[in-house]
From TrEMBL:
This is (d)CMP kinase. Its EC number is 2.7.4.25. It comes from the Bacteria. GO terms for molecular function: ATP binding; dCMP kinase activity. The keyword Nucleotide-binding applies. The keyword Methyltransferase does not apply. The lineage of its organism: Bacteria, Candidatus Nomuraibacteriota. It catalyses: CMP + ATP = CDP + ADP; dCMP + ATP = dCDP + ADP. It is an enzyme of class 2 (transferase). Keywords: ATP-binding, Kinase, Nucleotide-binding, Transferase. It holds the Pfam family Cytidylate_kin2. SUPFAM superfamilies: P-loop containing nucleoside triphosphate hydrolases (SSF52540). It comes from Candidatus Nomurabacteria bacterium RIFCSPLOWO2_01_FULL_46_18.
Amino acid sequence: MKKEIITISGRPGAGKSSTADLVAKELGYDRFSSGDFMRKMALDREISLIELSAIAERGRSIDEEIDAEIKKLRGREGTVIDSRLAYHFIPESFKVFLDLSLEISRERVLKDLDKNKLRKMSDKSKNTDEVYAEITRRLESEHKRYKKLYGIEDYTAKQNYDLIVDTNKNNLQEVAEIIVKKYRNWLNN
């Protein structure tokens, strides 16, 4: 049974948050970001996102807290969820993957450090090499946790999604328009 829920996944810097904002606005839906939720968890603990990920590798409590928030949304239709694993927890959602190379991703994350208060306060990296190293460490940490906790080998595997959008070839407005159009078609078929 299809739900009026869109789950948006992708690597860091792919545009999940900006895209989710625009898609939610276009559809008049609510929005939830697990990345923002995790950054807030790190800020509340006065540690970096990498440190929070390291804690999550050693125990289940961090992931269970994030997962509980996402699972609550399963029953709330009219929601856009920006989360790497929401597609897994809400399989009846319209599942979108925003594709972007890590090389471009690091440039976008570095730019966002100055604008995004949550990212700025939790990520200490100042140059592209540091950002790339931090993204790589975070992805490695997530890969270990997702495999151990959920048996997910690769959340970036294209077969997990209803739609793949290259955010390097399409600007933000185009990405949102593609998602809304494909989502409406998906709902009606």
